[in-house]
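User: Design a sequence. Structure:
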């Protein structure tokens, strides 16, 4: 394949707007794309005309219905730092975004019994088998993203883990619930707390293979009788690095050294620092010995695969580096002060990369700008909105954001400083086995791989490493199917059908299958018409994935709209968002100026031994995005943190 048009040898490189001239030059590579006529410019729901009540937005009372299931925390309105569990971020609705509460919705749930039973077809029959939908529509094809690297995937997964953790249902005696037999076969009768993902009977390859997993725990499981149920959420909703620091005080304390603000770490053979080891590796990782390397951090998914660990270790090193620098600048600061200041700065840097570099890739730069998602170039943003609920909502987490599972590569490159691939790692050989991360210089090689290897494209193809071999254990040939889980998870979460999201996002309601061809290729519409009885039956996740990407974006209309809405709420609904003025957590204007220098390239250089990096660290290196030395990447001057 070839790279994106602007990168062709001989063509002039488009000037990089944000990182080189402060955004004042308006010559953008997407300009021609933007000019293509798009009759349905999508807007995020929060910015749409609120008099258009037919779109199905949940009423304000319904939005915080879940709050009544949880005690209100007592708040200190003057606190300068975020709480660990996210509570009290909103001083009127202090439960919003707090961990161990419930996720919210923006449209009404669709459960067949109005309470918690998965949706049915309009006819009253069962919806099509999720595995059948998956194998029909979402096969494996090597179609790399033209320009974006695997870091886009990895950074996205970090945000996913930062903002949502589904809690699994347990059996009625509170014990862990097994949905499949130990040998991987399907039980005679599936427990009712399990997702109904069956292998079709006529599928010879997967006879009696069990693809089920637990349903998500909800408010009824903790004795709160609201209807429809809300799904529980195990982490803080905010983009606040809870995956590094923890989402509750006990976890947060267990990760600290209580000396000079630093987080606990272990030193690898190469003399660099890594996340600390979990006590019994065999319980948390798929390894034979208790002392094998296997990590702990603020989120228990840290060992899901090596790149997830690498990403979290990068955050750990950033925190500890900031602590060391702040200590030198302010020698009198105690442990608590350094910890909180470093945490606050790290979150600000991470939010800046998120809104300045990551969000425009997903949603398109023009769309991001038009919907107020891009950071300001200077000065404070004064648009904190205390009535905007930042709690992670279900259509985002159970459908739209998961579509990035399409970006996953099945074989992960380890790459040398000269940018040659030194080895390829099969993803399913390393699920929950991260002990290779700190062998030799693998950490740097994984990181260079994230920077250099193309992601898979955002399309209807998924690597079988996730759709056939998810969590495959060594020596076993089969695994789970993440895409079937995603489809069935949407039903578990009570997501209404695709048509609801079309309306919400300003598209015409489809009365017939043919009406879908405004967003979805006719060929795929025909497949949908074969799978589903009625146009109102179609699940949101598969249909959203089939939508044609919007100009300059990697997502189609309704995923752009839903993901846009979520990032809008995480920004304007987060009182501690780094650009806000007039808040208790506001940075000084000198500090804000420094924070805005942050780039993913800088963070990468600060947290590794990599010598060279491309400036646009979410794009593969190319003629227009050449490797430069880390020394030449602009740095933050922390003198702005010196206290008189
Ligand atoms: C190798 C990479 C990845 C693997 C192996 C992976 C695997 C998984 C698994 C096993 C789940 C739980 C599924 C369920 O039971 O419902 C999940 C959930 C999820 N994933 Fe991924 N994922 C990866 C990357 C990503 C990326 C790149 C994104 C987005 C940018 C993402 C977004 C999500 C979201 C939002 C959830 C729901 C979280 C929750 O509800 O707890 N994942 N993923
Ligand atoms: Ca969080």
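Assistant: Done.
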């Amino acid at each position: 394949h070839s790279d994106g048009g602007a990168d062709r040898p001989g063509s002039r490189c488009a000037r990089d707007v944000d990182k080189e001239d402060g955004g004042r030059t308006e010559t953008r590579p997407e300009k021609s794309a933007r000019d293509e006529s798009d009759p349905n410019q999508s807007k995020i729901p929060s910015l749409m005309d609120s008099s258009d009540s037919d779109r199905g937005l949940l009423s304000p009372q319904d939005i915080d219905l879940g709050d009544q299931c949880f005690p209100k925390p007592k708040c200190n309105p003057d606190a300068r730092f975020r709480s660990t569990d996210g509570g009290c971020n909103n001083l009127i609705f202090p439960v919003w975004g707090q961990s161990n509460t419930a996720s919210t919705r923006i449209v009404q749930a669709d459960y067949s019994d109005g309470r918690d039973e998965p949706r049915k077809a309009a006819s009253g029959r069962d919806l099509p088998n999720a595995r059948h939908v998956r194998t029909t529509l979402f096969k494996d094809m090597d179609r790399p993203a033209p320009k974006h690297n695997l870091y886009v995937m990895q950074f996205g997964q970090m945000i996913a883990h930062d903002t949502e953790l589904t809690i699994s249902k347990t059996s009625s005696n509170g014990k862990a619930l097994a949905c499949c037999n130990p040998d991987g076969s399907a039980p005679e009768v599936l427990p009712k707390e399990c997702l109904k993902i069956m292998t079709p009977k006529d599928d010879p390859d997967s006879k009696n293979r069990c693809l089920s997993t637990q349903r998500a725990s909800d408010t009824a499981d903790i004795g709160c009788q609201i209807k429809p149920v809300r799904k529980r959420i195990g982490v803080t909703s905010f983009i606040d690095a809870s995956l590094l620091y923890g989402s509750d005080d006990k976890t947060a304390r267990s990760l600290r050294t209580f000396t000079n603000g630093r987080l606990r770490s272990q030193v690898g053979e190469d003399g660099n620092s890594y996340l600390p080891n979990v006590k019994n590796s065999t319980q948390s990782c798929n390894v034979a010995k208790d002392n094998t390397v296997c990590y702990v951090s603020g989120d228990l998914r840290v060992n899901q695969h090596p790149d997830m660990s690498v990403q979290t270790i990068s955050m750990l090193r950033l925190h500890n580096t900031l602590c060391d620098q702040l200590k030198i600048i302010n020698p009198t600061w105690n442990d608590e002060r350094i910890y909180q200041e470093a945490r606050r700065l790290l979150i600000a840097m991470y939010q800046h990369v998120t809104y300045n570099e990551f969000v425009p890739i997903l949603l398109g730069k023009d769309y991001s700008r038009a919907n107020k998602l891009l950071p300001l170039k200077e000065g404070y943003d004064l648009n904190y909105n205390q009535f905007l609920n930042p709690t992670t909502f279900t259509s985002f987490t159970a459908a739209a954001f998961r579509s990035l599972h399409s970006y996953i590569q099945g074989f992960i490159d380890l790459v040398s400083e000269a940018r040659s691939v030194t080895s390829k790692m099969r993803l399913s050989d390393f699920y929950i086995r991260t002990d290779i991360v700190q062998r030799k210089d693998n950490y740097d090689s994984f990181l260079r791989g994230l920077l250099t290897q193309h992601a898979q494209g955002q399309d209807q193809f998924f690597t079988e490493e996730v759709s056939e071999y998810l969590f495959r254990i060594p020596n076993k040939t089969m695994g789970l199917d993440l895409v079937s889980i995603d489809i069935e998870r949407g039903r578990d979460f009570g997501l209404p059908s695709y048509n609801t999201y079309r309306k919400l996002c300003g598209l015409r309601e489809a009365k017939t299958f043919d009406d879908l061809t405004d967003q979805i290729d006719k060929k795929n519409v025909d497949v949908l018409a074969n799978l589903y009885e009625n146009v109102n039956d179609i699940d949101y996740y598969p249909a959203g994935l089939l939508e044609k990407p919007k100009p300059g974006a990697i997502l189609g209309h309704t995923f752009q709209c839903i993901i846009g809405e979520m990032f809008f709420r995480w920004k304007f609904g987060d009182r501690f968002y780094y650009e806000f003025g007039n808040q208790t957590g506001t940075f000084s204007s000198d500090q804000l100026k420094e924070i805005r220098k942050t780039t993913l390239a800088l963070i990468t250089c600060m947290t590794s031994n990599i010598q060279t990096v491309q400036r646009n660290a979410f794009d593969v290196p190319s003629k227009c995005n050449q490797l430069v030395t880390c020394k030449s990447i602009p740095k933050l001057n922390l003198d702005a943190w010196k206290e008189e």
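The two ends are 56 Å apart (CA to CA). Confidence is low (pLDDT under 50) at residues 1-10, 16-35.
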